[in-house]
């Protein structure tokens, strides 16, 4: 097999298996190539991935060693993508009764979701995680997109326990905006004790839902290592109950009467 | 830039943009390479993608022409993956009260979800689709995984309409197994009139939920072009209400007392 052919196959393999350790003999056997050729191939791919700003190939020496693709997404690319997203969202047609912003089309489009996953993946790339935890419904695609980059399983908290989940742990929490008491439930066997988790959701206002997720995680003795929200909005009525989080967007103004809508970058881009 | 470097960048680009038309001048300009070199690169990638069984690069001639990566997943690979999945599922520890099978860990693992997306993507690759429609909660990751392969947006039907969706159309339907009347709602602006849709869900027993989705699609004048379910189970009490569907798995027996669980391949593998 020629170098160019091996490079197609290896680039494909790395992109399908982010963060997974691949032994050099695996490639050597697959391609019937010399170890030195495979090493050179990997150097080329590593350099190109770095120059494309999409991560790097990490090499671990020794008997249990190998290579691993660590995806990344440089800050410039992240910022450009979020600026494009802001442009899409700042459309008065998106304003819904109650001052909400219609985002379901954006959240339904994998071309956006994939990029959001990359941005959050880069934001939390150095955090040691066992699970990514979200709550049904709209956080789910975001959770999977980040999970794909970080190679970590997703756990979905539900509003309604289902028979197909087995025994569940449930808590009540006060929704920030409506002040209503709501329930969250999570299957008992979905998280192992003493795990490290990343919480993710599409939207945060007063932070009641995230606070509820934090409380539920305590029931599982899990440590919340990070909180990711796609969009945050200011809540005039009360103080935010969540302090330490990463947001990509901030909805600053939604005026139903004038049709004005102002979206800016979230705190991930402050510095 | 050398051929091997261009090939890394192009393989990456194709894999990030399935089914999207890319003009040759885009590559020529990006790499400052001759058109003939870029064409040769594409031929190498095309041949290698085909020999890996992951699809092909389609070339369209003419002024509005270009190249497009059409992902595929050959039947052998699909079958091998499903056999592995069956092995994971046939574990008596997965049996839940009521004869259900715990699958949330599988559905939470992107390494499985990605492959399921490829299998369904191959099953429906020649169907002209505008949307992939699922119903909260567990069908969601499957829908996105297929959407990634087919480059089609996802639309999520909810059990509970939310303020962040705007006006919704809702219907009542009878859940097959519990005989309870339930509600499904979908945001009015989420589907355009006269669209072609693929319905997808994780599990089908009597087919009540899928039937409900079909009815809701009628309200949007949408045409159901296909139905995909990951796992089907036989319902002894009543006839299935859905006829034409593709399933990857069939749960044949779940015996709570003996702990016996038998899973076989679904109808996609009949023939």
TrEMBL record, chains A, B:
Domain Bacterial purine repressor N-terminal: 2-71
CDD domains, sorted: PRTases_typeI
Keyword tags: DNA-binding, Transcription, Transcription regulation
Subunit-structure text: Homodimer.
Keyword Transcription appears in the UniProt entry: yes
KW Transit peptide (keyword) present: no
Entry's family note: Belongs to the purine/pyrimidine phosphoribosyltransferase family. PurR subfamily.
Record's protein name: Purine operon repressor
InterPro entries: PRTase-like, PRTase_dom, Pur/Pyrimidine_PRTase, PuR_N, PurR_Bsub, WH-like_DNA-bd_sf, WH_DNA-bd_sf
Sequence ranges assigned to domain Phosphoribosyltransferase in this UniProt record: 130-254
């Amino acid at each position: 097999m020629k170098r160019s052919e091996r490079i197609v196959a290896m680039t494909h393999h790395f992109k399908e298996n982010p963060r997974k350790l691949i032994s050099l003999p695996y490639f050597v056997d697959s391609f019937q190539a010399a170890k030195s050729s495979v090493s050179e191939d990997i150097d080329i791919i590593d350099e190109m991935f770095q120059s494309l700003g999409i991560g790097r190939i990490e090499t671990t020496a020794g008997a249990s060693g190998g290579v691993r693709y660590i995806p990344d997404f440089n800050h410039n690319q992240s910022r450009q993508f979020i600026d494009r997203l802001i442009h899409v969202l700042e459309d008065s047609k998106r304003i819904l009764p109650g001052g909400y912003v219609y985002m379901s089309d954006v959240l339904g489009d994998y071309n956006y979701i994939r990029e959001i996953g990359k941005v959050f993946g880069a934001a939390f790339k150095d955090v040691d995680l066992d699970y990514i935890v979200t709550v049904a419904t709209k956080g789910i695609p975001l959770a999977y997109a980040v999970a794909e980059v970080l190679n970590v399983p997703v756990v979905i908290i539900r509003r309604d326990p289902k028979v197909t989940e087995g025994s569940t742990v449930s808590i009540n929490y006060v929704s920030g905006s409506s002040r209503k008491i709501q329930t969250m439930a999570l299957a008992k066997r979905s998280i192992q004790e003493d795990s490290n988790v990343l919480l993710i959701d599409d939207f945060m206002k007063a932070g009641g839902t995230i606070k509820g997720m934090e409380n539920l995680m305590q029931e599982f003795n899990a440590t919340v290592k990070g909180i990711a929200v796609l969009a945050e909005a200011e809540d005039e009525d009360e103080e935010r109950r969540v302090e330490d989080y990463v947001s990509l967007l901030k909805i600053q103004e939604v005026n139903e009467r004038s049709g004005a809508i102002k979206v800016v970058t979230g705190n991930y881009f402050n510095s």
